[in-house]
Design brief:
Glyco_trans_2-like, about 325 residues, Nucleotide-diphossugar_trans, single chain, 2 domains, Spore Coat Polysaccharide Biosynthesis Protein SpsA, Chain A, alpha/beta, nine-stranded mixed β-sheet, glycosyltransferase
């Protein structure tokens, strides 16, 4: 495809210190059987060799355009890429994952056949940090009604696997700044209120699991944001204003009732978050234990908390297990 040709697909990828994996990710896009795309990449202030790797590939393939910027974060980078995209369809890609060669061809055919579909994900297999391959046995929900139901509990769509209609996403305001580390979940909830979303049963994407990924390092922030996104969706669906419209950050669970003028919302969200993070080592050392203690102090249910204490022992987190056990006896 020449630079003057209008691409059929705009591929959007943000890169931050991904020198270990980014070449493999790029090669998986350049190896697609459907080649009518532009490949837009933001180098989001990387301090490793990512920038030189990106520039080298851009010099070799005219479909690649690299935008270098100071670190602004994933949400700002993705919104910039949405503005820069020229194609009616945008395909997400992450810098540590791998797309199977037929991914774009299969997604493009489905989007052409189903104009009512605004977001189309795929099922996935997995890679570990060292590149070992793990086939998955679970499936994401596939049909729009099943996805809508699942979304009120969890995402159910692999963000970097999706192909989306650019105009739909832009009309909804793109990714919202307040929802750091769960920007995709908030977006899916908003999309699903106006448009259909689907997952292909085909496993066209290899998703990498590693200790450094966002869902591991920022699990507590992600869980709090997800609880806020669900609450906002409930308000919108009840015909009430979105409480976080225009916000650049979310209030803490301790202050959310005061900020929103509600009662009991913070306590309900806190219990949702605890249920999401109670077996995470990172979460229990970065505020999760304190959430559990606050819940117990206020007379919240103890159901399942002893099991959590036992799990903490198995994780080698003895001080945290003892603290939780003491509070279970005390309150």
């Amino acid at each position: 495809m020449n630079k003057t040709d209008t691409p059929v697909i705009s591929v959007l990828m943000s890169v931050y210190n991904a020198e270990r994996y980014v070449a493999e990710a790029i090669q998986s896009i350049l190896g697609q059987t459907e080649g009518r795309f532009e490949f837009l990449i933001v180098n989001d202030g990387s301090s490793d060799a990512s920038a030189s790797i990106l520039d080298r590939y851009a010099a070799q393939d005219s479909r690649i355009r690299v935008i270098h910027q100071e670190n602004r974060g994933l949400i700002a980078s993705l919104n910039l890429l949405l503005e820069e995209a020229r194609a009616p369809l945008v395909a997400r890609m992450d810098s540590d994952d791998v797309s199977r060669p037929e991914r774009f061809a299969v997604q493009l055919a489905e989007m052409a056949a189903r104009p009512e579909i605004a977001v189309l994900g795929t099922n996935t297999d997995e890679l570990d940090a060292d590149g070992a391959y793990f086939p998955c046995s679970d499936f994401h929900p596939e049909q729009p009604e099943d996805i809508r139901e699942r979304l009120m509990v969890a995402s159910g769509i692999c963000h970097p696997s999706v192909m989306m209609r650019r105009d739909v996403i832009r009309a909804l305001g793109g990714y919202r700044a307040a929802f750091r580390h769960c920007e995709d979940y908030d977006l899916w909830l908003r999309v699903s209120e106006h448009h259909d979303m689907m997952n292909l049963r085909d496993r066209l994407f290899l998703y990498r699991r590693s200790p450094d990924q966002v869902s591991e390092k920022h699990i507590l922030v992600q869980a709090i944001g997800a609880a806020c996104a669900r609450y906002a969706a409930q308000q919108r669906r009840a015909g009430r204003p979105d409480p976080f419209e225009g916000a650049t950050s979310l209030p803490s669970l301790d202050t959310i009732d005061a900020v929103l003028g509600t009662q009991g919302v913070g306590a309900r969200m806190r219990l949702e978050v605890i249920d999401s993070v109670k077996y995470s080592r990172d979460a229990m050392t970065s505020g999760g234990l304190e959430l559990m203690q606050a819940h117990l102090r206020e007379g919240g249910t103890k159901h399942g908390f002893w099991r959590t204490a036992g799990r903490l022992v198995k994780l080698g987190m003895i001080p945290q297990a003892l603290t939780l056990s003491y509070d279970l006896v005390r309150y």
